[in-house]
From TrEMBL:
PANTHER family recorded: AMINO ACID PERMEASE, AMINO ACID TRANSPORTER-RELATED
Membrane protein topology class: Multi-pass membrane protein
InterPro entries: AA-permease/SLC12A_dom (IPR004841), APC_superfamily (IPR050367)
Record's subcellular location: Membrane
Region (Disordered), start-end ranges: 1-20, 481-511
Chief localisation class: membrane
Listed Low complexity bias regions: 496-511
Keywords from the named record: Membrane, Transmembrane, Transmembrane helix
Keyword Transmembrane helix: yes
Residue ranges crossing the lipid bilayer per the database entry: 31-55, 61-79, 91-116, 136-157, 169-190, 202-226, 246-266, 286-317, 349-371, 377-404, 416-435, 447-467
Domain named Amino acid permease/ SLC12A: residues: 31-470
UniProt lineage: Bacteria, Bacillati, Actinomycetota, Actinomycetes, Kitasatosporales
Pfam families the record matches: AA_permease (PF00324)
UniProt protein name: APC family permease
């Protein structure tokens, strides 16, 4: 009796098609978790805000409000353009559409360097913060490098898993880190602070002081990552509305929350004493405050939550980098292999592996050189990354009015001209502030600072050179760079067509 072996039917239909990112998956709150987690509120408050108080006095809370207002103005034009340009490359696509393909390719390279700088440097902070936590809580010395390497593995796995996994994890971590700050603020408010509650922090005489410039520099960097809302457009539900809402919520939350927390810590010590307290123990200011007003157990918990806050920030930036890399691979600028998406998790896992390998190489290079994980790995790598992202915001703000001059649309002049122009002026001033105070951020020599500052314009210029090369050697890639995706948004806004809401004018041959 013969048996005919069974054969598997040929795979056809949707199952045989290459997998894509999960569409219509993320709601407004999910995207807010990603972008606010990238800013690492607890780490920014406990680690940086005390220095802002030392240098800017009791007017420091107003600096965070001013930065928040500036970025809210930027968000007006940014979110307006996000309704019309549906490319997953966000910043670089907006810049390409508004300022031309060469500027867009320069911006794409700057985005990859900026976001990688913001993530990879933080592995040094993870190692040093974990070592400090172990020392403070258990008296155990832990070398920073094994912790950073373990962090690389954890973050790779988080990015490898589905976007829902990342959103849920970041939601839990973000609630925990903001919760401990709310607990501190509540304790101060209930007990009335050291000398009663005062609004002197917002008095013009305390805000308009020379140290405010340094506070503003710190404040702008504290919002890093909020603009990454648009990167998740392809995975968002009702992206036309979700991206806009998530951006405004993230900016409003960070600006108000930062200002509120810094103000409550000032009240914890009193207007007359807080600067001295912050000067005497900059790194321990928040821990001393929460010990006094809540209890020692809360200070111990804050130590642990700072570590989880750093992990949340790393995962948020890792996901953002993966999506930028995916978009560039789909454009043809990066190798097509990077465009592969995991069939089960629907994650851009190949670019995630590449990003983790890059992080591993940088971390090991600094370790082999005997560099300090905080003062060198973190500060030297983070600083050009942060300035690079601010430069991208500036270019995007400039691109908005140029784009809307070239398309047919129904948007008002306030959104398409006034707000982005004002934002461009304010962002240019913010970049100048950060660059002029770079020694405060890095603590490095003038030579090192000059090199760190030069990385940003050099990266953009290299991108312009790459654009010329692409135009000459791969004209088909250059021609479609920054264009609209072939697939429409999963859920167009009610009453709106599935395609782009604006009709582009004929392409400028000069681009």
């Amino acid at each position: 009796m013969s048996v005919t072996p069974k054969t598997s039917p040929e795979r056809t239909g949707p199952a045989a098609e290459p997998p894509t990112l999960r569409r219509a998956t993320l709601g407004t709150s999910d995207i807010v978790f990603f972008v606010v987690s990238a800013a690492a509120p607890l780490t920014v408050m406990a680690g940086v805000a005390p220095l802002a108080i030392v240098l800017g006095g009791i007017g420091a809370p107003a600096g965070y409000l001013i930065a928040g207002i500036t970025l809210a103005v930027f968000a007006v034009g940014f979110t307006t353009m996000s309704r019309h340009v549906r490319n997953g490359g966000a910043f670089y696509a907006y810049i390409a559409q508004g300022l031309g393909k060469p500027a867009g390719i320069g911006a794409a390279l700057l985005a990859m360097v900026g976001y990688n700088g913001m993530e990879i440097g933080v592995y040094g902070l993870l190692g040093s913060a974990t070592a400090e936590t172990a020392e403070a809580l258990w008296g155990v010395h832990i070398p920073w490098l094994p912790v950073s390497l373990a962090g690389l593995l954890i973050i790779w796995y988080g990015g490898f898993r589905s976007i829902e996994f990342g959103a849920k994890l970041l939601g839990v971590l973000l609630v925990a880190e903001t919760g401990i700050l709310v607990l501190l603020a509540g304790g101060v408010l209930i007990k009335g602070g050291a000398n009663g509650l005062s609004a002197a922090s917002f008095a013009p005489g305390n805000v308009l002081v020379p140290g405010t410039a340094v506070v503003l520099a710190f404040a702008f960097t504290a919002f890093t990552g909020f603009e990454s809302t648009a990167i998740y457009r392809r995975e968002a539900r009702d992206p036309g509305r979700t991206i806009r809402r998530a951006t405004y919520i993230a900016v409003a939350f960070l600006g108000l929350f930062y200002a509120f927390v810094v103000w409550t810590v000032i009240q914890a010590f009193g207007d007359d004493e807080v600067v001295k307290a912050a000067t005497d123990d900059t790194g321990g200011l928040f821990f001393a405050a929460i010990t006094t007003y809540v209890g020692g157990w809360a200070a111990d918990l804050m130590h642990i939550l700072i570590v989880t806050s750093i992990l949340a920030s790393l995962l948020a930036f890792h996901n953002a980098i993966n999506r930028y890399g995916l978009a560039l691979a789909e454009e043809g600028v990066l190798p097509k292999t990077f465009a592969r998406i995991h069939r089960r998790h629907r994650s851009p896992y190949v670019v995630g592996i590449a990003q983790s390998v890059l992080g591993l190489a940088v971390v090991l290079a600094f370790a082999l050189a005997g560099a300090d994980p905080y003062t060198q790995l973190l500060l030297w790598v983070n600083t050009p990354g942060g300035i690079g992202l601010m430069a991208l915001q500036l270019l995007a703000a400039i691109a908005v009015p140029f784009y809307f001059r070239r398309v047919t649309h129904t948007e008002g002049v306030l959104r398409t001209v006034v707000a982005p122009t004002v934002a461009a002026v304010l962002l240019a001033a913010a970049i100048w502030l950060v660059a002029s105070k770079i020694d405060v951020f890095t603590g490095a020599s003038s030579t090192v600072n000059t090199i760190l500052l030069a990385i940003v314009p050099a990266t953009f210029l290299i991108g312009l050179g790459l654009a010329r090369r692409l135009r000459r050697s791969r004209p088909e890639v250059y021609a479609r760079f920054g264009a609209e995706p072939e697939q429409p948004d999963a859920e167009p806004e009610p009453g709106q067509p599935a395609g782009p809401a604006a009709v582009p004018a004929p392409a400028d041959p000069a681009q």
